[in-house]
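User: Sequence in, structure out. Go.
Assistant: Echoing your sequence, followed by the structure tokens.
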Amino acid sequence: MTRRGLRYELPLKRPLRLGDQQVTTRCGWLVQRGDAVGDACPLPAFSVDRLADVDGAILRGQTTTASLSWALHALDLTEHAEVATAGLVTEADDVEAGDHACVKMKVGRRPLAEELRAVASLRSTGVRIRLDGNRALTPEATARLADAAGDALEYVEEPVAPEHLAACIQRAPIALDETLLDAPVAEVPRGAAAFVIKPTLLGAEHTLALTALAARRGTPVVISSCYESAVGRAGLVRFAAATAPDTVHGLGTGPAFASDFEGWVRTDGARLTTCAGALPEEDAWVTF
């Protein structure tokens, strides 16, 4: 069956800090085969491929990239699906749980004293807490933030540089994220509280290998979004429901968009449900 693609650009409500960059739009390609649609949108500063690589793969038939391989795999994920998602707190002075029973908070961005207060404030709401350090914390800061979260803590996601990770795993519940991108599957460290799997970054083959490894080890899997369009998030909801239906996943990036493709994901409190959404005009698509 013929495939076609559409390059898109969607504005964000406010700039998104990615490494040393500030991103104001999310750009990528929708790919369609029959009624199934996927989303190939590399995340600047984090993805192993770039948008230019996806451009080349679609327009010039070059080797499939990581994000495009995931988008093509998502074409087979067509079942209606529903999962729970965690809330997302990106700034220490913007702590709100809303309808979410579990909230992920970014840490390592502000003075430690401010973040400790924010974690304590979040804990007082009664939610389960996930902290995400993006390798920006010291082992000591990791321990203090974990203590501040107390028995509300589910895990701290990739808090420290790789050389400190093994020691931290012995001291606190640590989830792996960046390590899953960096390390060969056979060398992924044992003892993690969870694998936070980002299919857009990993690509289809690596994603499936890691979910299989997690199943063998009995490690919980959390599927996480990377600010994909609503089409991309719908594919992730379907994959999350098929992989770990009872887990609270990390797919709550939709509110970051100022505009998006309509109708693909319905949000009911902390639950996301896939729907049949709308697509842009026919004449803008290319066949590949």
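User: And one key feature?
Assistant: The two ends are 11 Å apart (CA to CA).
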